[in-house]
Amino acid sequence: MSGQAYNSFSRAFLEWLFKDQRPRDLLVWSAKTYSPDEHYWASLNDMYHNQHLDAPGGFFGDPEKKGYLTKFILWTYENSRFKCHGRAVHNICNFNALDLPTIVSQLHLAANKYDLTMDPVAYACMEELLENRTVTPDPKFNKRRYETLYFVRNNFKRKTEVSGG
């Protein structure tokens, strides 16, 4: 199982991670794999294949359909969905100010990657936007866009079934 190295976790998941021996055993084993960080987090979160782990907040849907919300990464392959206006390094876009409309249109919580030596304005603009959204939340914010995401539905659906709610 492979997934992103960037993730968001619930407090219950993190408590389980540090108290249960199984995540530590998997971490030791994962150290010998090609991409341990991606393999480790994806395996712990995958309740579709690894229900025996019983990780709090784990994902019960098909991992191939999951999608990611934590960090927006613009890969610069030929069939990329978005154009990179910045500079590609290892097929990952280092954003510049012209990429900002694409970034803010995404549902992700953060974006990867900014190079302050290339375009500090892009980073400064995003920093200001996040600060403004924190201080003055948008009254038009639609949480339904997040509630209907496939991986959110498959997490909550299973949690409700398990708790009997």
From TrEMBL:
GO terms for molecular function: acetylglucosaminyltransferase activity. PANTHER family: BETA-1,3-GALACTOSYL-O-GLYCOSYL-GLYCOPROTEIN BETA-1,6-N-ACETYLGLUCOSAMINYLTRANSFERASE 3, GLYCOSYLTRANSFERASE 14 FAMILY MEMBER. It comes from the Eukaryota. Keywords: Glycoprotein, Glycosyltransferase, Membrane, Signal-anchor, Transferase, Transmembrane, Transmembrane helix. GO terms for cellular component: membrane. Pathway: Protein modification; protein glycosylation. This is Beta-1,3-galactosyl-O-glycosyl-glycoprotein beta-1,6-N-acetylglucosaminyltransferase-like. It is a single-pass type II membrane protein. Belongs to the glycosyltransferase 14 family. Coiled coil: none annotated. InterPro entries: Glyco_trans_14. It is found in: Membrane. It comes from Elysia marginata.
